Every structure is written in structure tokens, then in C-alpha cells.
Amino acid sequence: MSQPSPILSGIRQRCGQCGEGKLYSSYLKLHETCPVCGRDMSSADTADGPAFFVGFGVLLLLAPFLFLLPMSPLPLVPMIIAFIVLCAAVVGLSLWLLPVAKGVLLNLQLHHGAEEASFKPGSED
Ligand SMILES: [Zn+2]
């Protein structure tokens, strides 16, 4: 069985080893092991990396509209509605992309064997 791409399987929110098992048991709660192939997923920790990338990307995409909207010639009520829609888009897009980004980062960590740095005392070069 060939190993699927960690990025593509992360986008699909599937295990990076078998490409079939779901990564999450609920919205962002990871399974301890893959339900299909049994791969241990508890060794990887994405911490706040997905939130950083998603927040940065979404704000990069939508922040110009937050600055341009007050300069538009809209009357007050449509402008308030446009702000509400824009804020809902920021929140909705972030919540939609967060599991995807976490899946990609988790699969990349497991694929490359990334782990927390450890230093041995007295081994300075
Ligand atoms: Zn699997």
C-alpha cells in the first residue's frame, strides 16, 4: 500500500498513513490512533500552529474589506448588515479551515517524524 500525500490526506482530514481513517472524533479532537490502520497520532502536537496560519490567511483575505467598507457610500443599515456578514464570513471561514490546517500540519509532523527538540547537557559543539 503506497502512502498518500500528507498534505492531501490532511486536507481530506484523513490519516496520513492509510488515507482512510478519520483524524477527528469530534470537531478538533483527535483520535489517539487511526481507526483503520492503528497509527499512533498522540505523538504529534500541532499546538497553535493551525490557528496562526488560518487566522493569518483569513485576515489577509478579508481585512481589506473591513477597511474599505466604512469608506463605501452605503446607508447606515446596509453597512451594518454588510459588517455583520463580513464578520460572520471571517468566523465561518476560520472555523471551516481550522480542522483542515490542523490535519495538514499533523500529517506533516507524523510523516517527517517531527518532535520536540531535546538537548543533552554537556554536548555543546
Ligand atoms: Zn490510518
Characterization of the model:
This protein has helices spanning 6-11, 49-68, 76-112. The protein has one domain (6-112). It has 125 residues and is mainly alpha-helical. The protein is elongated. The model has no long low-confidence stretch (mean pLDDT 91). It is 50% helix and 0% strand. It has 3 helices and no strands. The structure holds zinc ion. The site of zinc ion has 8 residues, from loops. Zinc ion is lined by residues 15, 17-18, 21, 34, 36-37, 39.
Topology:
Elements: H1 6-11, H2 49-68, H3 76-112
Helix pairs in contact: 2-3
List the main descriptive attributes of the protein structure presented here.
about 120 residues; mainly alpha; binds zinc ion
Give the structure's gist in a few sentences.
The protein is mainly alpha-helical and 125 residues long.
